[in-house]
Amino acid sequence: MVGTERRTIRSRGGEEPFTSIDPSSRSPAVTMQAAVTVLIVLLSLDFLSAQSKSDLRNSSNVQTGETGQKTKNQPHIIFILIDDQGYNDIGYHNPTIKTPTLDKLAAEGVILENYYVQPICTPSRSQLITGRYQIHTGLQHSIIRPRQPSCLPSHMDTLPERLRDAGYSTHMVGKWHLGFYRKACLPTRKGFDTFFGSLTGSVDYYSYRSCDGPGLCGYDLHDNERVAWGQKGKYSTMLFTQRARKILESHNLTDKPLFLLLSLQAVHTPLQPPKSYIYPYRDMANVARRKFAAMVSTVDEAVRNITYALRKYGHYRNSVIIYSTDNGAQPFTGGSNWPLRGRKGTYWEGGIRGVAFVHSPLLKRRRRVSKALLHITDWFPTLVGLAGGNISQSQGLDGFDVWPTISEGKESPRKEILHNIDPLHKYLTVTKSSDDKPTKKAAAVSPTKGATFKEPKKQKKVVKQKLNKKSGFKLKATKKPQIFTQPATKSKKSKPVSKLKQRSGPKSKPAPESKTKPQFQHQPILYNKPKIQSSGTLSASGAFNHKSKRTTSQNHNLSQSRPAQNKSKKQLKEQFKLKSKQMFLQNQNISQSGSPTPRLQPAPPPLWDTSVQAAIRVGDWKLLTGDPGHGDWVPLQMLPTLPGRWWNLERSSAPRYKSSAHKNVWLFNITSDPFERQDLADQRPDVVQQLLARLAYYNQTAVPVYFPPDDPRANPSRHGETWVPWADEEEEGKYQGVYKKGKNAKKKRKKKCQLCKLKSFFLKLNTGMMSNGI
Predict the structure, then answer these.
(1) How many Å apart are CA 624 and CA 665, to the nearest integer?
(2) pLDDT of residue 490
(3) Which residues are marked as active site?
(4) Which of 449, 480, 543, 568 has CA 20 to 30 A from 133's CA?
């Protein structure tokens, strides 16, 4: 309003009403009097103009808070978080998706083309709110389900809390999905002044009904800490947008600066767009893709309404608009990450490379595309620093202040990203027992701090799995890559070598025991001698030494390790009977002989358990271990059905459960190969070794995984058919560690009926199509 008054004053001053008087028709006295009057008017206008400019400068640069202290200029921050929008689900990547507003805002701002999020909802949102990796919040395993007594750590500060300390008015509208079992977990207890939205991960767009299993459904729409009844029938994207516009309308320009987190549920399932938005996509044959695209259009309209409100109520010129997705899309439900590899829930680029841009009049370099490496954890220090807050109060942040990178195009301070380490997710392998029946087995792990994983239990029939315990990597100082396997460990109940060899598989060829050693099928891993320093030391048992963060290759005894020597059968038996835990390393390609050799020295502990699901990005390189998820390149949904021939165009023919020698290490140069089509793990073992060392460093800082069991007290039937907090405040930390099912849980499970599941799928599909009239 101040700017409008200033322009009005200038326009009046420009009319110059007194200059049109003819001096010749007036007497000299009148002419002199007129000149004096004009001079006085001009001086008055200059004074008013100067005063107006001063008021404008003071209103934009000086602000009075509740304490009466003046602070420097603080921009309004509008963060728009979208759910499940893929790389190929926005207009400037795919013209078939109609998003004119998003395209215009992105083109006038800075498009972030090297920006990363997490593959699923809760981890991304937790890292945005806390600025910490999920290994530091205990949420590294999965999402928080509605009945789980879990939420953000109570001792950890949040982004809205820091902004509120800096004098901001903080508001959140939309999806929370960060736990609500206690009132202390609610958004209003985590730094937001107001909250309007849903607490669970997915609700019906019209009825706001959320389900966590058969018969476990409840109403989930809340206004602050009360249930917001009477909103059924209103489309959630439009309802959330209306609430956001009301916040902008009621916010006083001369009052506090504004932080608004608009966390839309769209375009997450269920696919429920208004029918009027489907019509522009009527030419799309695929029904799911058609609905998904229509929901993206509703998001585009919502953003248009928000930007219009910013301009209407005078917030725009001093605002920063950030648009970001929370993870990749799910092709099964109409989304698309093409041409990136993978999908939501995976650590391939399609699951973690996010769509994002920044739009603001405050940007110094606009209308450009940024290739700087950024991560969702960077928003915490970036926004707090932009708001003039104190970053030093937040200890243990994993993010960086990247505003100079975004606004001025400077080099990003971020050089690497830890995508995640999930010790509970280990690759399933298939082994064969003595009766030649395939057995699925996964090594048990413990979610304790660091890399102190529990050893798998001893199996009498499965020999290969028992040999994977306490694996060690033997490294030689040679330029040529070597193949290393995982050695066996001492076991009190181990049997003679001849029997072990006979039980390793029916296809193994017998050989004289005096001349050969048993050949076991291991998981080969390629390494060179490491040339970098990691940030943690390893003890003899394979656990990290937290007392020292200074390590080199000598700490691991890698340069001092000697190649395994050949032994006779008698010496092997003696070694198995030793009480001290020693490991030996056997190269499968070396010929065997029965000549006696000196006793082996203890092999170095393993640098990293490659069966653990983990992913890290360092510079141009990206490393994945364990099971990163389905690594498909899913083409566009061009056919009228869901999974069909198009789904298998880029699928691998390899079975889901591979042999015990399955691949569990991938290496890509993302800069030159953004679609992850050329695996370089075998060609660059030196880089693999370096990135494994970085994983080991990060893992020593990890906190225990917190994944408690479902609490029956959360059932909505006990709370008036609504999802609300159910536990007392004193119950914080009641569950320690991770929920593990009983030993008989697997026995009670029935065999899966693939035909039954297929029939059920098509039945639901047909019912949905009939109900929607499509």
Answers:
(1) 6
(2) 38
(3) 121, 177
(4) 543
